[in-house]
Specification:
Pfam families: Peptidase_S8 (PF00082). This is S8 family serine peptidase. Residues 1-18 form the signal peptide. Belongs to the peptidase S8 family. The chain is of the alpha/beta class and 350 residues long. It has one domain (21-346): Peptidase S8/S53 domain (Rossmann fold, 3-Layer(aba) Sandwich), CATH 3.40.50.200. The chain is 23% helix and 17% strand. It is built from 10 helices and 14 strands. It has a 7-stranded parallel beta sheet, sandwiched between helices. The protein has a 3-stranded antiparallel beta sheet with strand order 2-14-13. A two-stranded antiparallel ribbon has the order 1-7. Helix 4 (125-135) runs parallel beside helix 7 (289-306). The two termini are 35 Å apart. 55% of the residues are buried.
């Protein structure tokens, strides 16, 4: 951990409109009680390891510096469930985290059944899959882009706006270097009243002030068939200017049909037909910007392991130099822009 952080403010009052602002996984329908619809159970023989790990070639894992890449960097996951730290693909790469809950604001001060949960005691498929794409270990089937990094899992319970705010700020105070948010908050309306989750900026600005990079899934509300939510509507925290917003592309290089066409989308990463670690040592296949975002978070962890002097604003300003065709992430270009791959070396990269 690189920083000690400031003291977290505790016991905030619940926002009066929080009940009408719902949080959904970026791969799920827009109801917080719905399961993650774009994660399907699979055995390794169903998809074949190579077929579900195409991101390793697309993102040139072979070029990543570090032994192992991402060594010493910590990434928080902001999720509505914990991470299965005992999965073979995650063994030794997940430390105990934290659980926040809107309905139990005393959770940070008093031992309760909820506070006893530590981000690994209540594992969920989505959170476990996200973690595996970042820090998947060589001993497992899911290759992580930053196997030397460590995941600090934050379970935000019911996933209301206050939960996300508290979760991000808690992660910052825990000393993480990167926060990955594979969740989205959207505007909600009841009769003539509407509310948008703008208060989450308080948490992302807090991360910015403390030198922590925030990466978020852009959402799955593009204009294609089967996409969720109002087409191309704003999704938080991805729309915020201090957040790196990530869309998805397919194995053939096409922009995934449910990636929103919004100005805030900074970069596209692999996000379709990806092999994921699942709870209980199992595996799943996932698609969505939820699974593109952790690949960007992991790449930033790799860069920070080599360049710990870089701050969030410097990384965001460099993003245009990371892009290839159609906004897809060009990893050799990103490494060169960060000064961890010499420009002359990039010319000889296949």
């Amino acid at each position: 951990m690189r920083r000690s952080g400031a003291q977290l403010r505790r016991g905030w009052p619940a926002c009066a409109v929080a009940a009408v602002v719902t949080l959904v996984a970026a791969v799920a329908p827009e109801l917080s009680t719905m399961p993650v619809g774009a994660v399907t159970d699979a055995s390794l023989t169903d998809v074949g390891v190579a077929g579900g790990t195409w991101q390793a070639e697309a993102m040139r894992f072979d070029l990543l510096p570090g032994d192992p890449p991402g060594d010493g960097v910590e990434i928080a996951t902001i999720e509505r469930g914990g991470v299965d730290a005992d999965h073979p693909s995650l063994a030794g790469a997940v430390r105990n985290g934290h659980h926040v809950d809107y309905w139990n604001l005393a959770v940070d001060e008093q031992p309760t059944a909820v506070s006893a949960q530590n981000g690994v005691s209540d594992p969920a498929a989505h959170a476990t899959g996200v973690a595996s794409l970042m820090v998947g270990q060589p001993s497992g089937a899911v290759p992580g882009i930053a196997p030397g990094a460590t995941v600090y899992p934050i379970n935000i319970g019911d996933g209301r706006e206050d939960d996300m705010i508290r979760g991000i700020m808690w992660a910052v105070d825990a000393g993480v270097d990167v926060v990955n948010v594979s969740q989205v908050l959207g505007c909600s309306s009841i009769l003539v009243f509407s509310s948008c989750p703008g208060d989450v900026r308080e948490a992302t600005d807090y991360a910015e002030r403390n030198g922590v990079v925030v990466v978020a899934a852009a959402g799955n509300n593009g204009g294609g068939d089967g996409c969720t939510g109002k087409t191309d509507a704003d999704q938080w925290p991805a729309v915020l200017d201090t957040v790196i917003s990530v869309g998805a592309y397919e194995p053939g290089g096409e922009v995934w049909q449910c990636t929103p066409r919004r100005a805030d989308v900074d970069v596209l990463a692999p996000g379709v037909r990806l092999l994921l670690a699942d709870v209980g040592g199992e595996h799943s296949i996932g698609e969505g910007t939820s699974f593109a975002a952790p690949l960007v978070s992991g790449l930033i962890a790799v860069i920070l392991a080599e360049r710990p002097d870089l701050n969030p604003a410097e990384i965001r300003r460099s993003l245009p130099n990371w892009l290839g065709a159609d906004g897809r992430l060009d990893v050799p270009a990103a490494l060169a822009a960060a000064g961890v791959l010499e420009p002359g070396e990039r010319e000889h990269v296949r």
